[in-house]
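During the first year of the project, the team set up a workflow for recording each protein of interest as an amino acid sequence followed immediately by a discrete structure-token representation. This format lets reviewers and collaborators read both layers of information side by side without switching files. As required by the reporting guidelines, we include two representative entries from the current panel. The first entry is reproduced here exactly as it appears in our internal archive.
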Amino acid sequence: MRKILIVDDEGDIDILTRQRFRKEIKAGKYDFFFAQDGLQALEILENGLMVDVVVTDVNMPEMNGFELLLKMKSLYPEVKTIIVSAYSDDKSRQTAKSSGADFFLTKPLDFKVFQETLEALF
């Protein structure tokens, strides 16, 4: 089972994700966890949750996605990362790459593309 931590301050992302991946969750393929910002995500990881992938939004309170990825690069280099942003310009993509993102997806999140990206990671 692949464990995926989604870091996003949008309130409905957990409901949408669980609905979209309900078959995969039921089959034991994926297990999703959620955090509201980068600090909460780091706290979850520091408390021992071993995840395969962290999917993070860029704009969040407390700690943004780029800051989270920079911290994760040194603390959890084995964890794959996906950054999700409403901004798809070259500067945002370059910042994501230099922060350690393995993939860059744009908002609104296309769940078909998201699933294909997860499959590409494994």
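The second entry, processed by the same pipeline in the following quarter, appears below.
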Amino acid sequence: MKPRQKRAMFIVAGVTGVGLAVLLVLNALKSNVSLYFTPTQVMNNEAPHGRSFRIGGLVQEGSVQREKDGLTVNFVITDMAKHLPVIYKGILPDLFKEGKGVVAQGKMEADGKMHAEEVLAKHDENYMPPEAADALKRAQAAASGVTEANVVSTAAK
């Protein structure tokens, strides 16, 4: 084999190896990405079906019900416009309370409820992720009939 052919084979092998590595990394990232949605987005069928995702909002007042087994908890997450029932089996965070912010990760099932694998409670009452705060403001505005332009202008202040 000529040196020119050897060099071409090494280049082809290198490009193929890098392409395969990139493909494997992207596949791993795709399977581990957990998208964030609000109850309104889930009810509008914007959330993925058959895949795990995160839903954030407030725990609706009076919605927390504990099963007799001591681990299963039923509650409702709301963004003040739509409500989504959640079933979680496990130990809840200490800061989990009605009326407080929560993020649940899980899948929507055929029964119309989210079966959560993980529940995270907001650790500080003054902080909320910008996406969640904007979604709650828009949902509250939609429920009260305020235009989105007013919501954006008040959020910018």
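For the second entry, the following points were noted during internal review. The chain is about 40% helix and 25% strand. The CA atoms of residues 72 and 89 lie 4 Å apart. Both points are flagged for discussion at the upcoming steering committee meeting.
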